[in-house]
Design goal:
Elements (H helix, E strand, L loop, with lengths): L11 E2 L2 H11 L7 E4 L7 H8 L1 E6 L5 H8 L4 E6 L7 H5 L4 E6 L5 H10 L4 E9 H8 L9 H9 E9 L4 E2 L6 E8 L10 H13 L5 H4 L6 H6 L13 H12 L1
Helix pairs in contact: 8-11
Bound molecules: S-adenosylmethionine.
């Protein structure tokens, strides 16, 4: 066992019950193009590799790699990419064969990793991630809820988001300070995804939620005036948290009109 490094967000999963549930949720099949973010000591890697026969793992910590390689040798074909996942081009990695991305993510960069995956969503079949429970709750939140915000809207427009189960701190070594949860993200078919520029959409969503207590008319000042918001069938006096994800697409279209 290696010493966990805090600056790499290392919390190694050791409880077999939860590992089994994660592997069952992923249900790997031979031939799947599995890519794991942050294999660590291989807690998830080896059971997945056993079922899939081959997989790719992206690990930033060079110290963990020799042992991973050694232990994988008897199980299957493990390609290890030593890199920061944010620098990995999933579209290039896929070579036209969509990937299944999995990982017990380093929590210090969980949101950047989610947005990075969204950029490459055309190269991805599905994603299964362990994250802070609070982040999973925000991802899956419905309009009207206090925690519904940027992450909920951006992810739900592109993916079907399913919170699967909670994992307590004691399942990890060392235990994190918070509860964790496993989430499944399935990219929506292309025809159901927003047909607007992702950067503009994000600009609207970001502005709308920047000050949650402001009305849309005020929050979007400089981007859209009240009549343009009303022309979308949306009350300029409404607050961002009451809008459905699709409403933000309408607002973005109005912006570009
Ligand atoms: N999968 C292992 C498990 O479940 O026991 C380890 C999970 S641990 C929460 C996160 C892993 O991500 C660590 O192995 C850490 O070194 C790795 N990691 C941290 N930052 C990373 C980055 N930017 N790119 C790739 N891997 C990273």
């Amino acid at each position: 066992m290696s010493r966990a490094k805090k600056h790499f967000g290392q919390h190694f999963l050791h409880e077999h019950g939860y590992l089994d549930r994660i592997v069952a949720a992923i249900a790997p099949q031979p031939g799947d193009r599995l890519v794991e973010i942050g294999p660590g000591e291989g807690a998830m890697t080896f059971p997945l590799l056993k079922r899939a026969g081959r997989m790719t793992a992206i690990e930033l910590d060079t110290d963990l790699i020799p042992r991973l390689r050694e232990r994988a040798a008897d199980i299957g074909e493990l390609e290890i990419i030593q890199a920061d996942v944010l620098s990995v081009d999933f579209t290039a990695l896929a070579e036209g064969h969509p990937l299944r991305i999995v990982g017990n993510l380093p929590y210090y960069i969980s949101s950047p990793i989610l947005f990075h995956c969204l950029k490459h969503v055309d190269a991805i079949t599905d994603m299964h991630f362990m994250l802070q429970k609070e982040v999973v709750d925000r991802m899956a939140a419905a309009p009207g809820s206090k925690i519904y915000g940027r992450l909920s809207v951006m992810l739900q427009l592109v993916c079907e988001v399913t919170a699967l189960f909670t994992v307590p701190p004691g399942a990890f070594r060392p235990p994190p300070k918070v509860d964790s949860a496993v989430v499944r993200l399935r990219p929506r078919p292309l025809a159901q995804r927003p047909d607007v520029d992702a950067n503009r959409l994000y600009a609207v969503v970001r502005a709308a939620f920047a000050q949650r207590r402001k009305t849309l008319g005020n929050a979007l000042k400089g981007l859209l005036d009240a009549p343009s918001i009303a022309a979308c069938g949306i009350d300029p006096k409404a607050r961002a948290e009451t809008l459905a994800p699709a409403d933000f697409v309408l607002l973005t279209r109005a912006l570009t009109a």
